[in-house]
Model the fold of this input.
Amino acid sequence: MSTQEQEPTSHLQSDRTRRLTVASHWIVILLAIPLWWSVTNIERLSLPRSRVARIANKQLRSTINILVDEGDLRRDLEAEFEVRAQNFPQLGNHLDLRFISEQINPASSEVTYRVNLAKDPQESQVTLGDRSISFPAGNKPQEALVPQIAETLQALLLPPSTSAQELRVIQYAPRYRLAFTLLNEDASVGGAIMGWEIASAINRYLSSSLERLHVLHNFTIESQVQFHAPLAFDPDTADNGKEYVLDQERLKTFVNSAEWTLASSVSNDPVLHFVLFIPSAARRPLRIVQENGAPSKSNAFIVPQWGGIIIHNPPDHDHLNQYLTAPDLSAIFTTFRTQLLALLGVPQFPANVVDTGEGISSWNLDAMLRRRAAENTKGSLEALGSIVKLVDRIKGMPIKNDVKGDFIEALEELDQVYSSAVESPEAALLHSSRAHTLSSRAFFNPGMLAMLYFPAEHTYAVYTPLFAPAAVPLFVAIVREFKDWKKRRQDKTKKE
Amino acid sequence: MVAVEWCFRLTSVALLHGLLRAASAAPVLEEEFYENLKLTPLPDGRLLTRFDFKTLLRDAAPRAPHTLAEEDEPQHYNLFPLALGQLLREHAVTELHLTLNAGQWNYAAWGQPEDSGVATGAELWAWMGESRAISVKDRWKGITNGLAGLFCATLGGLDVRRTVSPSVAFQPEGDIPSSTPHHLLYAPLPSESVCTENLTPFLKLLPCKSRSGVASLLNPHRLFDADWHGMGVHVTWEEGLGVMVRMNFVAVYNPTRLMGLQNKRDWSFRLLFDRSITRACPVATRSAIHVALPSEGNFRLEPTAHSNLGNIAIFDVSKVQEPLELSMKWPDESEFDHTSFAPSLSPPLTVRRVLTGAGQSQGALAVSLSNTNTETMRVAWVETMPWFIKFYLHTLEATIKGERRNDLVKLVTYAPTSSSSQAPTLLESHVTIPGNTTLRLTIDLEKSFISYTQHPPAAQRGWDLPGGIIAFTSHSSHRGEKEKELREQRIYTPILLVDLPTPDFSMPYNVIIMTSTLVTLLFGTIFNMLTRKFVWIKLHE
Done:
């Protein structure tokens, strides 16, 4: 370069060595980047999202055998239901009806209903039995009966429900706590109910229903009595001045959770509350009125997904305290039972059917099993879909093995729901319930939140003091080498 | 006292029977509720008020631990608090004691409290039977979390780092079923403070809440103004009787302060609670107010008591027709003389306990026990310390007037801590104190250097250490019933505050910056050396 320059004394000073030194630094850094990336990266395992979509597109179908002895009737019904399946997509999408003449395989667990025609001319009502139904044949020709039979069967197999009814049904859980509470608004002014024969009342009026519901739910029962349970508001006086009334608006704020200690602290099972409210002797009788101001027929109401309340005005015995024995509780517990069935979503029978089993028969239990399984499946799929969506949207969300495990297990349970629904509604419900639990557990996994509170910016902030000053000489070196190389090329061309 | 209670029980039961006969079909009384308020003027001008609420579940038994794997029977309660009952059943608890107190009980001026549990902060101990289904430790976790939720207290902190199983000082107060082996678990939480948020759920467990009966006096605004206040929940089982829940609230008022400029010890319900009893609790089997009458001095108690027993005036709240408003006056006193009170209640044993040593890592615990009796006294001394305090057992030394008397201390248990398990230290020993002497016990300790993440917020404040416990194991001159009473008495020393080595909490960032700078400096220098061209320069002269 210049005359002042001498050749370097050591081989370390050669251009080649210097270039190798710079290059090796850069090679190490470039090689280290993937390693650094993998150790600081958030663990995001891949989720089988295509399986979710595949299951979500499938229809949950249950097979139902309908056994009809009369050949003509069977053919007519089959034809009738083919037409109905097109008119009612619900029916066609979810139920596979097979009309058969005799039990194919008595050992199989498939659901088989028997349809009978009662030849007895005295018989005039539709009666339900255990997975059987009997229609009065009367003297009418069979063709006239078919639409009526089909209508009733459809109502039993796929009970219609209004949105108001659906809204009050509590979410499915394998176990509920039934909390019965006797609330005296103010016992100290007298005329209060000091106790009730709750255990024997439950035995007499409720336990048979609870046993029948056993295929769907288990129940834990508890009860308490409170002597001071004030309302959050003062009830209005009726126009005649003798009664106190609650209008529909008041019913919405009737439950005074601040003062009534109804909460249970020992388990996570959902609670259904059944409250017998005794108004204070100074505010009796207390009645519910309808929107138009007319007194309501019943003094009981349901708080959707929470429980049932009965307002009980005991007969006045000179302000003496009373005790409710099991016979006294008969009407109250019949109402509680009706409320319980409504809250659990037990479908009502069609109007023309005579019910012999306290509102619960194998027909509506089966319908409930199918509906709950469908609900759980839908809920589970929604939760899985939400996880996928969430993970796509938030890049910093970790997915660890436990979430993935729950996710896959939920999918497997869902597969089993579809395969078992054909045969056994109980098994389908069990699997759907498990799928729902697993998918919610995956959705609420606290591990998925971890990185949200430690964003990547923090990492950069901590490491900048190291990386920025170290990077400067590296870049300067490479720029210098580049300039050097350019200059030498220019020199070369000049020489030429 | 016992006779009075019986007399009341009989009359009220008869009364209740009369009432019930008037109503239809009298039911069997399975649950009973008793409420009582006791007011005791103290010699130092203060007033001790003690609310007692007892609910008896007659003929009930605690859940047998071996049934924990099975489904429990339905729970039906009339008076018994359901929320508490559920918790007891869920975890098969035989006996449970929870106290939440604020302030230090002044043994010298106020005497031995009726209930020994006056430890500052929270204290929980429970007896539970062994079960194969769920271990005692797991159930303890459930209980602490359940009670934390029930009473809005930070009892969830009573985990393995706080829990010990002492063998002396905590004897069951009720009966323990002999069929299953039982374990005691005990945990103190000295930093817990008691306030309205604890009282509100407490009141909700009472059958009459705070709306009628004696409980209507429980006005949080006034109760938490008292010099000392505390609440307790005690669950015991007595064979042949049933499961009993005792809930109490104790407050030590200072009427001379409440009276303002007047400086008198006169008190009234209006002054103390700003309330009066207007209605009786309809479900109380017995509802009474007891006023302990001072043995001397000219005082006037209004209104007149319904009955008197010895020096106790008794008011039956269920008989009250008009608002009950008690007041007590000392008409002759124009001003309470604080200097006049003689230490008549001075206890037979006084305890002082201090932490000595100035450093942040070493220290010593010194306990001095003064026996004011002439007789020799045998007590149990229990110390439980969090895991970051390490005792050096070989330095345990007992001295009387500077003379070594290690023969007076007999060690029962020493469970040292380990930083891996973080279990607390437990030191239990029997101590003999000769009459009219002061025994001084010292033990050296080491304060651990704990990780910066383990420090609580406001770490500079230091850590609260639980108070020491002195329990009367036996008393030589007493026998039988009296002895049992004495054995159950415990004295709690004041809690201590320890200063642990506290780091600078911005340290991690400083370390990162410092290390980064050094590494970069080093790297830059070496890299420049390696890539720089060193050439000879000939200097032309």
Remarks:
- The radius of gyration of chain A is 37 Å.
- Residues 180 and 223 of chain A are 4 Å apart (CA to CA).
- Chain A has a mean pLDDT of 86.
- Residues 171-343 of chain A form one domain.
